[in-house]
Amino acid sequence: MYSLGRKSRRVIEESREKIADILNVKKNEIYFTSCGSESDNLAIKGIAYANKNRGNHIITSKIEHPAVINTCKTLERQGYRVSYINVDNNGVINLEELEQAICHDTILITIMFANNEIGTIEPIDEINKLAKKHNIIFHTDAVQVVGNLRIDLEKLGVDLLSMSAHKFYGPKGIGALYVKEGIEFERVQDGGHQEKNKRAGTENVAGIVGIAKALELSMTNIENRKKHIERLRDFYISEVKKRIPNVRVNGNNNCTLPGIANISFDGVIGEDIVLNLDMKGICASSGSACTSGQNTTSHVLSAIGLDESLINGALRISIGEENTIDEIKILVDSLEEIVKRLRKNIIK
């Protein structure tokens, strides 16, 4: 009841309303979390627990973010059944297989909006229509998309959607979950009664203000920013293919996020490229941030059918609005020299 508390409550609700307005939803449909991973956990477990009397079957894909894959595996250990749907060699979900997997006890479909490793955008409209046709709740992990592409959730029609501030230049450690009004879900974290009794824990007031402001700023001139990043990405891919032999571009070239480029360099190890680029002051990865440092094969690249050599030689770069064509030229020059040297050393 004291003034500082009232001020904090006011800015939280103003931020919630700002996000709701941008996404074209109701204010009470936005729940704040600590990140995209927590949003995924809350969405998937929350729906599973709330609907356990109706069914125990969940459908997802083989290329989901670990926050979705591992949440589903946890639910499997609790007695739920999960179907993991295949994708084609560009990472696009097999819609026919998806519909065939639907059973009388299917309670949730959770398919990512766009992949975090290869950038492929999934046919969310068609997946949503399938879910509605069979009266199944549909959640999408849109962490890679919100703030980078314009989204109208009223038109999109999904039931739940996860997002995270750091993907659109907001602070780390803050995310949000959209839950359509009327969709019942259970809390998964015990504690206080914050976030309408759905997400216990002291509110990150600064983070909440930050995610709302960052999303607002991301919408400013979004189309021109998208075109700028796409130009850089396309130039990068074109130059690599022109100057470095035996490479494969991973992802759906016709429908992909502007800022992600994943290329396999046959005959070299992606981690070796990353380390050599780092010595030149260039930040890249052999996978996504959620898998960095793990000595495991990319489940995404495996799912699209790459052989071991191409999986091991994968390099993922992220391009942002502040990057320039000169920086991309430096990157390609560096890659040409590094890959040639690494391949020569392997032959020796």
Concise description?
The chain is of the alpha/beta class and 348 residues long.
The tally of structural domains comes to: 2
- Order of adjacent strands in the largest pleated sheet: 1-7-6-5-4-2-3
Main structural class: alpha/beta
Query: Number of helix segments?
Result: 13
The coarse overall form would be globular
Say what the CATH topology of the largest domain is. Answer: Aspartate Aminotransferase, domain 2
Which features does this protein show?
three-stranded antiparallel β-sheet, single chain, 2 domains, seven-stranded mixed β-sheet, Aspartate Aminotransferase, domain 2, 13 helices, 348 residues, Aspartate Aminotransferase, domain 1, alpha/beta
How would you describe this protein?
The longest helix is centred in the C-terminal third of the chain and has 23 residues. Helix 3 links the parallel strand 2 and strand 3. The mean pLDDT is about 95. The chain is built from 13 helices and 10 strands. It folds into 2 domains: about 220 residues, 3-Layer(aba) Sandwich (Aspartate Aminotransferase, domain 2); about 130 residues, Aspartate Aminotransferase, domain 1 (Alpha-Beta Complex). Strands 1-7-6-5-4-2-3 form a 7-stranded mixed β-sheet, sandwiched between helices. Strands 8-9-10 form a 3-stranded antiparallel β-sheet. Helix 2 packs parallel to helix 3. By secondary structure, it is α/β, with parallel strands linked by helices.
